[in-house]
Design brief:
Layout (H helix, E strand, L loop, with lengths): L1 E6 L5 H10 L2 E6 L3 H9 L3 E2 L3 H5 L4 E4 L4 H14 L5 E4 L5 H13 L4 E3 L2 E2 L1 H7 L2 E6 L2 H14 E8 L3 H29 L4 H8 L7 H4 L23 H18 L4 H18 L7 H6 L3
Parallel strand pairs: 1-2, 1-4, 2-3, 4-5, 5-6, 8-9
Antiparallel strand pairs: 7-8
Helix pairs in contact: 1-6, 4-5, 8-11, 8-12, 11-12
The chain binds nicotinamide-adenine-dinucleotide (NAD).
């Protein structure tokens, strides 16, 4: 049985580690939060008291941490304690340049590294249906594949190291922009006297269709499972969307790419978050665009 160390058992990591344990892996789990560790044990993982203990005897380490600073610190600690050659797979969403720098340091220390951010949210993490976008060497990707298959449905090797993070922020830049576009259209439709359900029936089967409309529809009613039906409880929090749009802006600046709508979306979500809505679902930005808060 392959042993996997899992570091970071939060909203996403909890479900991912549980799915590894449910599959053919022995999971040695670590989180700074004792409650998260307890939940992991209930889901079939083995709780470890430190990163050093978690990586002992592990062939693969998976991390799911908040930011690049966390990943950098955790990877440095792993490099001190893990056996050389252990495969490091980071699924956190971090900057492309940070991922490349962390990968270079890991490789230098004798550890193959994959950046493997995900799409699909906590629902996908719990159900094992995440999309993984992976950057790194082909042999490392092949070695990680059985573990990624246990946590996800679509596993795509995007290219060299950093390519996974590049795909993630480009995808989420589309998501942020289309959500605002969808909200603006619903508000305009409302003000023009159009019924929201009628507008949905038309736009969702016309060229205005998008994931923002058909899965996370920002008005209650047309898509009963969308966060709008539960007063915009996340879902995908505004603060996380803002984080990804900032990473996209940073990458665009480094790569000299023109992303004016991405920049505008970042400004609008920053304003929405600054008005106390950071933990609400990002589709709640419709309230600000309507002028209602
Ligand atoms: P989270 O804050 O719920 O979980 C992070 C966990 O890491 C926490 O339990 C924390 O205690 C732990 N942690 C922090 N530092 C640690 C350390 N040094 N050692 C061990 N554990 C440590 O965050 P999340 O929502 O699970 O997101 C994780 C990553 O996934 C982020 O980069 C986020 O942008 C990305 N992401 C999140 C979602 C989502 O819907 N939540 C979707 C896709 C991607």
């Amino acid at each position: 049985m392959t042993t996997i160390a899992f570091i970071g058992l939060g909203a996403m990591g909890a479900g991912m580690a549980a799915n590894l344990a449910k599959s053919q892996f022995s999971v040695q789990a670590f989180d700074l939060n004792p409650a998260a560790l307890e939940a992991a044990v209930a889901a079939g993982c083995h709780a470890k008291a430190s990163i050093a203990e978690a990586v002992a005897g592990a062939e693969i380490v998976v991390s799911m941490l908040p930011t690049g600073a966390h990943v950098k610190a955790v990877m440095a600690e792993i490099a001190q304690h893990a056996t050389k050659g252990t495969l490091l797979v980071d699924s956190s969403t971090i900057a492309v340049e940070e991922a490349r720098a962390i990968a270079a340091a890991a490789l230098e220390a004798g550890f193959p590294f994959l950046d493997a951010p995900v799409s699909g949210g906590t629902g996908g993490a719990n159900a094992g249906t995440l999309t993984f976008m992976v950057g790194g060497e082909a042999d490392a990707f092949a070695k990680a594949q059985p573990a990624l298959n246990a946590m996800g449905k679509n596993i795509i090797h995007a290219g060299a190291v950093g390519a996974g993070q590049a795909a993630k922020i480009c995808n989420n830049m589309i998501l942020g922009i289309t959500m605002i576009a969808t909200c603006e259209a619903f508000v305009l439709a409302e003000k023009l006297g159009l019924d929201a359900q009628k507008f949905y029936d038309i736009a969702s089967t016309s060229s205005g269709q998008s994931w923002s409309m058909t899965t996370y529809c920002p008005v209650p009613g047309p898509v009963p499972t969308s966060p709008a039906n539960r007063d915009y409880a996340a879902g995908f929090a505004t603060a996380l969307m803002l984080k990804d749009l900032k990473l996209a802006a940073q990458a665009a600046s480094t790569a000299a790419a023109n992303t004016p709508l991405g920049a505008a979306a970042a400004q609008l979500f920053a304003l929405h978050a600054s008005q106390g809505h950071g933990s609400e679902d990002f589709s709640g930005i419709i309230k600000m665009l309507r002028g209602g808060h």
